[in-house]
Fold this protein.
Amino acid sequence: MTDIKRRSFLLALTGSVSSAMTASHAETHLHPRQRIGKAVEVTSSANFYTQHYRHIPEVDFETWSLTVLGVNEYVLKWNDIRSLPAVETMRTLTCIGNPVGGAFIGNAVWKGIRLVDVLGNLPMPPDSTFARLTALDGYETALSIDQLLHPDTLLAYQMNSAPLPREHGYPIRLLIGGTYGSKMPKWISRIAFINYEFKGYWESRGWSNRADIQTHAMIFSPRTLEKISGTVLIQGAAFAGYREITQVEVRIDGGEWIPASLVKGDSSLAWTQWYLEWTPATPGKYSLEARATDSTGFTQFVENHALHNKPDGASAIHKIVVEVLA
């Protein structure tokens, strides 16, 4: 893809190549590490969206510890974590409350250790079904034992080849494959094995306790109500968690669905970028829609009648309106 297309993809997310789009506490920005067409873009750490439960705690990695409450109490220190084999992976994170086409989403390269390497050899109560997770800011949630011990569940300490920024969980945060960020505490400090279903902060307010990612596509460019002319690059991203994105289609003014070109990440746990060139025939206002299909064969079908879909996360088709100038 040309530099113009790469720059327009950045502009779609930021308003300029150097600034970030903001929605409440969220920012999303794609860093031009590679041209589109070779590798998916990575959101810079400074411009990755943030969502805070309370305050951002001050943490010293030398005094940080992770307490595991199982058959006995175990305390893991920073050196225990760093002594284990490291893994690096590209992952997309998004908030369960992100509205259709919203900014609470980002894609980064994370480094850390597999949590199963920490917990796999520790005895746990035989009736354990869930693990209650507590963070230093007081945030709590829970995971099933299967989720907790999945090889894709990480304790991450680096983001984009640098230590985690404070606002992203320094020194350690949890990463879970295929779920929304509500299940991934930053500044994690305690894991307690329990034999009952626990509802944390968001779950007790009506959001899903499983929090599996919904299949969805987003239009990043052009923006809604934007005035455009000439040949236009319609582009965005799609994500479905563990399910691979197999197709993204665009519909213009209620016409036929047109397949877009795809650029995939390292795995389905990183978003898929998509783009389609469009030359409008006449001036006027046009509606643009994007829908995704995943590897199970599911295709988005819900019209965009609401900003978000509680309790499971947004899954409606993203629709915008643009104005084509003469």
